[in-house]
Amino acid sequence: MKVNLLYKIGIIGFGNMGSVIAHKLAAQASEYEVRVFEKDKSKAIKAKGVSFSEDISDLMLKVDTVILAIKPQDFDRLLKELKGRILNKLVISIAAGISTEHVEKLLGNVRVIRAMPNIAARIAESVTCLSKGNFANDDDLEFSKEIFNCLGTVRNINEDMMNAATAISGSGPGYIFYFIENSALDPDNIPEHARHDMMRRLEKAAEVLGFNTEDAAFLAANTVNASISLLKSTKSTPEELRLQVTSKGGTTEAGLEVLRKGGSWGEAAQAAFKRAQDLAKRG
């Protein structure tokens, strides 16, 4: 629920997704004031319409909502640094495999929203899944939805399905780029039968992970269409985008390893899901 004229959003991490979120929100200058903290100061050169803080303390003094956009392996160290500094701020985490319960365990009774956007956020066609923690309320969820609407379409799901969403809408673009890359398809002219084939594969994979028919169809259709749109608009090759979405040791890499061995998309999604679960086993 909107109560301020200008929302002060802080983003920790200015990597691939953090920078996209920062620039998309900064483009809505009448609604959002965006401030970022990033350890690698050279990344500030790429920023437009975004202010940078020298340290986390400065960032936390100047924002009302903080988006955690760092790698899962760096997460616990960051949470320990943030402990005691959150006060009444809303925390939004986009880290794969990190539950709201884990964030609450390290930060205390804070309001946490978990989000899983995907690479198509670059062209405002992301499929973002949202879920809320124990202390977040419906207004927090609605506000988070407004934020991620700037990146594309949003789906509210139960948190027990977030690792599955990571394996489908989060890692799904990787399967799609791999399929196009290895099927000798023209990225600028994907035939409808190929598009529907990918949707069918991803929808079946989503159902394997427990999504109902409606959610599976929604995630599959939007993820496939957005990935194809990204190929066309960026003029990147499927290989280039596959590499960009594949973090070392991440969920997409786990899924692609299965596909390379001849596995199905359902098996790939199961491997990505397991990797998301492994990332969650911490603390």
Kindly describe this structure.
The chain has an 8-stranded mixed sheet, sandwiched between helices. It folds into 2 domains: 7-156, NAD(P)-binding Rossmann-like Domain (Rossmann fold, 3-Layer(aba) Sandwich), CATH 3.40.50; 164-280, no CATH class. It is built from 12 helices and 8 strands. It has 283 residues and is of the alpha/beta class.
Give the end-to-end Cα distance, rounded to a whole number of Å. Answer: 33 Å
Structural class: alpha/beta
Shape: globular
What's the pLDDT, averaged over the residues?
Answer: 92
What does the largest sheet look like? 8 strands, mixed
CATH topology of the largest domain: the name is Rossmann fold
Number of domains: 2
Radius of gyration, whole Å: 18 Å
Strand content: 5-15%
Give the low-confidence spans: none
Distinctive features:
283 residues, alpha/beta, Rossmann fold, 2 domains, 12 helices, 49% helix, globular
